[in-house]
Every structure is written in structure tokens, then in C-alpha cells.
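FAQ
Q: What does a multi-component entry look like?
A: The components come first, one per line:
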Amino acid sequence: MRSRAASSLPPTGSGAIGDNERGSEMRPDIRSTVALSSLLLLQGALACRQPVVPPPRPAPSAGLPLRGGQVIVATTADVTTFNEYQSTGEQGEADAIDLLFPTLMTEQPDYQLHPPSFAPRLATSWEFSSDNRTLTFHLRPEARWSDGVPVTADDVRFTFLAQKNPAVGSLGMEMKDFIKDVEVVDPHTVRFHFTRVYPYQLMDANDGHIVPSHAWGKVPFEKWRTTDFEKMMVTGGAFRLAAHTPQQTIVLDRDPTYWGSPRPYLDRVVLRVVPDLASQLAQLFAGQVNLVQAVSPQEADRVQADPDLRLVEFPSRMWGMVGWNNRRPFFEDRRVRRALSLGINRRSLVDTVFRGHAKLSSGPVLSSMWAFNHNLPQLPYDPDQAALLLAQAGWRDLNGDGILEHDGRSFAFDLLYPASNALRRQMALLIQADLARLGIKVRPVQMEFTSLIARTEAGDFDATIWVWVEGTRVDLTSEWSTPSPSQGSNNFIGYSNPDVDRLIAAAREEPDYSRAKVLLDRLQELIVADQPATFLYESTMLVATSRQLRGADINSAALFFNVDEWYWER
Amino acid sequence: MTLAGAIPRWPRRLRAGLGLLAALSALAVVGPWMAGDPTAIVDPKVVGLLPPGSVRAVVVRRDGTTVAGDALRRSGPDWVLVRGGAEVTVTGSEVARAGVRRFWAGTDVVGRDVLARLVNGARVSLGVGALALAVALVLGVGVGLLAGWRGGIVDALLMRLVDALLAIPMLFLLLFLAALFRPSLAVLVLFLGFSSWMGVARLVRGQVLSLKERDFILAARAIGAGPWRIAFRHLLPNALTPLAQDAALRLGDLILVEASLSFLGLGVQPPAASWGTMVAEGQEVLANAWWLTGLPTALVAATVIAAALAADGLQELARSET
Amino acid sequence: MLRRALRRLGAGIALIWLVATFTFLLVSAAPGDFATRLTDPRIPPAARERWRRDFGLDRPLPARYASWLAAAATGDLGSSWIYKQKVSSVLASVLPNTLLLTSLGLALELALGVALAIVQLRRPHGTGDRLITLATLTAYALPTFGVALGLVAVLSYRLHLLPPSHMLSLEGELAHGWARLPDLARHLVLPVVAIGVAGVGAVARYLRGSLLDERLEQYVLAARARGCSPRQALVRHALPNALLPLITMMGMSLPFLVSGSLVIEVVFSWPGMGQVMYNAALGRDLPLLLGGTIVATAAVVVGNLLADLAYAVADPRVRV
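Then the predicted structure of the entire assembly, as C-alpha cells:
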């Protein structure tokens, strides 16, 4: 009996392809062992061996996609609730909920050129009033819930009330701060009233899926936190909930009463919970699942080499930095911070860790965003210049121990990173090696993730490797403006520059995005000049699918962006 | 009879087990001097994830950076490295060391020499493992003897304490302690030992309970032997069999559990290596690089086998002398 | 006897309360809380403070403890913050899955261990004995995930004999009632074998050592003298006595029975207590953690009680 107290960590490694050949000679002494094991194997073999196949498909019409079939998507965790307004916002949940409930519009992945545009979904059209304070949506008259009840403006208003209700306490409540009210003009026309005009009115109005007032309205808002909404699932999306085995599988069947067009080709989408990323890939290779969302950069080559698989790569909105605690004496001086950025070979780090599946980050705004300043200087790897800056800032190695000193203090600090992430550990090691050459002693410290967040929130750290996943909204307030104690802040590094604060506020208020861009360009210049953090990388998203799954436009907007158009080829 | 004279008469298992343990310990003590720097990152792009036995040409510059390639040649005072199709020239004045090296155990993702990490890790793993085992044994045997011998309320209280410690989610205790203490080897040894002694205590208590009523113990009590004497001269040697077996297996457990503690920030921190952390870190690239997990696992297995053989041998020795 | 059992039960309840209280303090003192993980930059930081208030995390510790205790004493363990269901229903849905797996695994371990030990003793120090020792020790020293992944790689991905994960296949989940049983059985094989193989080393070695000791005892020699074959003497006479230390070990395994193995559950995507408790720990889901701790403590208490009773029954000389 094993007595492992603090039992081992969940494995995040790749599936073992190398076999475990326990060679043992067939001696008469171990007959019993062999007999026992054969019995076990026999049991397995007696049951018919049937790999999972999609349900049988009808013969294809010439040139047209096949109808039918199922797609099995591997996810790392189960959905904890199908009611978005109870949820803590895990990404996997958002994908599933998007298949089941409609939004007014669908956000498009075109934020490279301008703030994202929207395509009709529940709403066929919409217009602003002349003063831009009122937004009117015209809803599809044929839209229906899965139980046949029409989707009306009442549902939209009901959803808004749920989103704002403090007893419900939904995560996105603050998004609706500038929406005063949602008015039902007639069953298919709904009007949003804003308190002010700003660039993201459409986005905020669209945030959150519409939920059925006739079904869920029966539950008073005070009880929403503790009600199990799965027992009263009435859905309005292309798929409906067919089965949910907790921690195992979610089966979503195509809803034949779906009002959208064209109707999806697929009959079923299955979300299979496989917590271990390596097992997800192994099952993809074995044909047990058809789609894996997060392929690690080290496995990308293996996927590309497999003739039965397809690797989809697109710029994600995930980017990483080394956050220097600007309040600590080490990192107060911007010359020192600049020296640190010059002294880390960021290009080599990104190449080594991501193997080409990431690019260098230049600044606080993602390079795939419309707001990105293309004229930003890219900091080179220049250890000589770095040494010069450090000397100018007063750091010298006086006692010959190889480590810089200043004011009686050695330049030695802890670099925190979450233990669960192998890529960040590799980055920490490379940063340690690079900075050691400058005479700076970096101590990588791995921590459990929640503890790490708690420490950074409290400002109790020197430096940390931190990764943000940005939204499609460009608002630098929470990350880069001076933290105010009354409202929380994501600016845990404590960066403070009054000019930057003013510009951020101005950009936020500016309704015209091209004028906002001018402000944002200047903002980025200032922040990059200050180097409050060392901007490391912007990663790409790697999604692996079966090669025979066609029509899937998997992009940064959503995994199931155009699931209506997915189909199997023979 | 001297020790040297007695050894050849020991059971073969004992000799084999102790011999293997001695070899592993020698590896841990002497190896690091011979194997090189386990933390040196050698040009990850060329030297990363090499299988065992690979050969690469490495040039180390004076500033500490390394450049590696498939082949090396001199060109006047300079060195020329051949990398794939390209050639890289390093001026002679910049070069600290240049040569061709064979990575006997391969390299990891960032290009560190696995052999160097294995022998340096041996020090940490074997040392921490043995010390933690000692802590667990001392605590466990002490508590087990006390509880089993005294019985009654002492037994009840101690066993409830053991139960409580087994039921508390260890993860939290360790998280909490990780927030209080800076990671150090002493802290690691204490935590490991402390998390492991309960099993030993229960085992010893069980043995004592059954031995307590046996004739030879009753006889010893009859002639007036004190509890300490009984404990060490009579109880413990007879409880040795299961205890030795348990200790051997526990050693392997402790070495691997150390990796979990590093995950929480309590164990050895990178870039220092231990077998446990090497196994955990190698999990992520298991399909591409079996040696990163396979080699330290083999060494842990060797340790466990050696300890178990020694335990078997000890048992035989004890049996042959009764 | 009955009075003693009742006293143990009372002590057990006291222990459960103590451990739960200690866990409450520990979780509250650990860095971070449930709201800490809401670091999505799209969520305004003000939302985090709001969530703290909504989940009562801004109330002082004694007040929170008192309300939890008052509810728990009446049997209401509250709702899990992560799973948004009652703690009792979360535990009730995963506990049977874990029990199924771990009980079968332990049974396999025991059966295989006994079988191997007996085989080894046919010819102690012979080649078979040595090979089995080597094999079982290697299997024990391998990290659990290694054994599990190895089994899956060979028996599932290579040979396609068994499914690689989950409790049921897709077809099995959509079926009902008894039709599920063969599917479940097929899915049980690999994880049970993984647990059994990983732990059999300990059982086989204890038994081997124990049996070697018992073999020399008087009563065994007496049995041989009466005409029993070596095998009969071993199995019928020595084995029951050699099983005694094993009983203690089984008692120690009851916590494992209830809390499962996180590694096995992750590799095989088995919806068990291990994963649930681990996620609860990382997510600082206090009600669920307390519920799980109570279940685990109860298992420990019951396990020890049973082990001690079994010991007393098996060896009448022992007075518990």
C-alpha cells in the first residue's frame, strides 16, 4: 500500500509513446502471475473492441458537405454551471454556453483594423439615436426557445435585470455600468439607454447571453446563486443539452427547432473532460477525440507531422511579461528597469521556449490590435548598454563577488512564477542565466498559483513572470494607471506615471476610435520608455483537429465561432 | 571477529543491498566533482532535448554564453562551428573553452546536462531522503512504542493524534507553512519526515500490541526488566521485519514526494536539481524525451531496490542469529 | 466491548470536530482565497471585492466559523463555491466513483500480493523469487503516473484492447441501467490494474518477509510433522498469522479508499474525490474542503476502529 501523503501532482506531460516492456521470462514459478494477468487481459479482450466512431453518415451529394456526425472536443474541466450569471468565468464554460444560448450579435475577429465589428445573430439590425445615447435592436421574429416559446424583447430586458442585480452578483456586472435601462418597445424591438457615449457601447450591450425569462424568471434573483439551473434548461442556440455526466461528458445535440440559418451540418457536439493535456493529445492521435484546444509548443511539430491531423495557429490575446515591483528599491529607477530589459535576451528566450510559436512583445498593447503603435522601438539584446545603465544608476561590484551592490544592498531578488507552468519555469531559468552575466542574482521561486496571485495582489514580491489574456477592448486603466485604493487594480507592479494616467483617462473617454488611437500611440511610447515591466512575448494559439473536419474557422473570437459551418468529409 | 571478517558471512541480499546503496552514495559524494555544472544552460537551440549519448561541439565564451554546433574546427586563432548548414565563427580572444562533448545522459529542454543533474540530484535526493526517513523513523518508532506499550489513555490520545494528522489535507498545511518559511533543505527534511511518521507509528504500535503478550516479553517483565530495556532489547528487534521493509519502501516514497513539495515552493528551487523534481519536470515532455523522467526514475528504483534488499538481508541476518 | 466501542465513537466525533476546526483555520490562514483567482483583466478588479463580500469572506473569522459550525451540526454542509451545488451532493456524486476504483484496486493489490508471496516462497532465493522481487519493487518505485501512462500507452493506444480514460464510453453514457455494466467494467480494468500493480510491491514484500519468519515457528514445523505438504503448511497455518501486520496496513489504507489518488484520476479522467478535493484546495473552496475533510476523518476513524477490532479478533492475545 502506498503511503504517499502529499500525493503527486497531476501530470502535465505528453503521453508515453515509449513502451514499458516488462520483460519476464516465462518460468513455471511465475505461472500464477501470468495466469492472473492474462485473465485480466482476457476480460478486456472478451468485450468487443470498438473505437469511438461518429454515427453513420448518409451518402454525400456531389460537392456538398456531409450532413450529420459528431465532433468530440477535449476540455480540461467540466462546466460548473450553464447559467453564465452564476459562473466564475472559466473559458471552457463560455464556449459551451455560447452553443446553447444566443447573444444579440456575434463579435467578429477583426480587431486588427478597428474595434471589433459585429454580425447579426438574435438581432437582425440595430441603430444608434442621433445623440448616440440610445441603441435600438430589432430582433428576429422567428427566434424561438427550445420549448417553442418565442424569444422576445422581454427576454433581453430580463437578462439585463439579472446582469445588474446585486443578489445575482454576476461577474460582468460592471460592464453594464453605463447602461441605465433596457426598454421593451415591442416584442421584437428593444432599446438600450446609455448614460454616456463611448467607443464600446455595442460591446457592452452585447455582453452576456440572453436567457429565457419565461423559464428562469420563475426563480427569484435572491435564489439564483444556489439554484441548479440545469434542471430547467431551456436553450435558444443551435444546440441543446442532451446529456451531462458530471466531470466526464457534455453532449449537445443539434436543436431541430433552431431558428438560425443555415442549420448546422453536425448533429452533435460532445465535450469530453480530459484534465491532462498530454492525454488530450494522445487521445487525439488515437482518434478518440477530434479537437484539442491548447497544444503545447513542444508538441506542435508532432501534430503537423501526422497526416490525419491539422494544426491551426492564430495569434492569441495572451501575452507575458516580467513584472518588476516598481515600489521596491531595486526597480524604482527606470534606468535599471531598462537595463534589465536590455540584458535579457528576449528573442532567444521566446525562440527556445516557444519554438517559433510566439513573437516578441513590444509593449502594453498586443501587436494584433488596431490600437498597436507600429512605430514603437523594439528593444534589442544589448548587455553592454545594460551594464552601462546599471553603472550610471549606481550599481557596481565593489567587493568582487560578481554581484552588483548599491547603498549597501546586493542586487539579488526573488523571481516568482507558478510551479504548474513548465514554460514559465524555463523562462525563469533563462532570465536567471542572462541577468547573472550582468552581475544580478536572480532566485527563481516557484509557488502554487493561488498563493502567487495573493502575494502579487498584496504587493509582497520582487519580480514575477506574469501572463495576461486580454479582451478585445483596449483599456489600459486597470493594468497601467496608478492604483487607487478604493477601486481594485490589476496594476500590481505599482507603476505610476501621471502623464500616463491622464492619457489613459482621455483615451477612455474619446468616442472616436481614430482620435483615441493617437492618444493610445503616445501612451504606448511613454510606457515603453518607462519599461515598468519587461515585455516578453505574445503567444499564438495552437488548436489541433482531425484533418477530415472541414469548414472550421477557428480563430481568436471563439472556438465555436462558425460551428454552424463545420462538417465531416468522407 | 572484525567487521571486515564478518561481512563475507552476511547473507547475499544484505551485501548486495548495502553494496548498491554504497555505490549510489559514492555517486552522490564524488560524482559532482567529475560531472560538471548542472545549472549551466548550454545553447538551448542546438543542445536542447538531446537524447543520451549525443555528441555536440561546444564553445564557451569568456562572458559565459555558449554556442554549440554539430562540428568544430580551427581557422587560425578562431574557432568555426558548423550548425546545420551554416557556420558560426567565434574569435579566438572571446573563447574560454572549446571542444567536443558527449552528453552521456542527454540534455533537457534548456540544454542542461542531465548526467550532471543526476549526480548532483543524487546528493539532494539521497541526503534529504535518508534524513527525512530518519526523522520519520525516530518519531514513528517513539510514538508507536509508547502507544503500544502503555496502552490505555496514552494509546488512545496518540492514535487520535495520528488519525487527525492523516485526515488533515496535507496540501493546506504545506501551503500555509510555505508561506511562513523560506525554502531550505532543513525545512524540507523536517516537513518530509513529519508528513511520513504516522505510518511507522501505526505499524510499530501494532507489532508491540501483539508482541506484548508473548511469552518472552512476559518473562522479561517477570524478571524485572524495565520498559526501556524491554523496548530496545526485545520489542524492537522482533518488530524489525515489517519495520525494515516499510522503511525501504518509504525511502522511495520520500524521494518522490519531495517533488510535490517543490511544486508548492518548499523543496529545492530551480536551478538546483533533485531526482524527484527531475521526474516531475520530465513528465511534460515524456513523449519526446523519455530520458528526462526515465533516468532519475531508474535511479530512484535502484535506491528502493537496494534498500529493500538490505532490509531482506537484515531480516535474514536477524533470523539466522536467533 | 460495546462501551468501549461507544467511547471510541465519541472520541471519533470529537476528532472530526477538531480536525474540521483546524482545517478551517488553516484554509483561512493560507495565502489567497476564493476570489483571488479572478484575475481576468476583462473583469474589473472591483468585482473581486464584490465577490469577497458576496461569499462572506470579508466577515471576521469567528463569525464565519460560528455560522458554518451551527449549520454543520444540523447536517447542512453548505454549498460548494466552485460547483454551485450542495456540498453533500458533490461528495455523494464522486465518492462512489472513488470507492469503486480504490476498493477494487486494493483488493487486487492484496490478492496479487498474496499470490506472489506464496509463489516466491516455493523456492526462496530461487530465480523466480528474485525476479518477482525485482519486478514488484520496480513497479513500486516507479511514480504512479508512470505505471498508469505505461499501461494506457501499451494496452490502449498500441493494442486497442481497452479504453484509455473515463468511466464510460460515449455510447455507455447515453445508455441506461444494466446495459452500462460491461462498459463500466472495461473502463475499470486499466485504472484498477494501475493501482494494484503500483502497490503490490509493498504487500508482496511484507508477506514474503512475514511468511519467511513464520515458516520457522514451532507450529508450522508441527504441521509439517503431522504430514501437511509445505504448501498446505504455508497457506493454512503460516499465512493467517503472517497477515497480521497486513491488517494494520489495511487500516491505514482507508483514507486512500475515500480520498483516492489524484494522479490516477487525472490520467484516467476518473471523476473522483482526488480531483474534486485538489481543485477545491487550489480554488480555496472552503465549504467543500471542510466537507471532504470530515468524510476523510470519518474514514480514518472507522478504519482504525475496524483494524483494531480485526486485530483483536485475529490474535486473541491482543487486548485493545
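Q: Is there any commentary attached?
A: Sometimes. For this entry: Chain A touches chain B at residues 2-9, 11-18, 278, 282, 296, 298-299, 302, 348, 351-352, 383, 419-420, 422, 425-426, 428-430, 432-433, 436-437, 443-448, 451 (CB under 8 Å).
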